[in-house]
Amino acid sequence: MPTASEDKDEIRELCARYCLSFDRGAAAEWAACYTEDGEFIGAGQHLKGRHVMEDFLAGLGSGTLHRFTANHVIDLDGDRAVCHSSVLLLAGGAIASSGRIIDELQRVDGEWKIARRVYESDTG
User: How far apart (Å, rounded) are the C-alpha atoms in residues 70 and 79?
Assistant: First the structure.
């Protein structure tokens, strides 16, 4: 059984993998950060299910945007967790937007996955 520190490290790694795969346009890798029926809500989108998410990102392709998450506050409860974090989106070296993320996570087959992500932009 992993320690709380190991679980939190794995969740932070998942958040980093999420940003990197999205920024690179790696649709399958990005969708794999979610549970099979995972959900994303925010930025005018409501996506549910890995297949839908993969198709969404494949349609966007990769670009010059860079996502950064920080200030992860992770509350563990067995095979479930909630992570509150801050996010910055950079475009051309300048801050394009900022906001907050609330992730509901679930351990699936020994790996942490995002079951539900809600993004709230600071600009509304």
Answer: 22
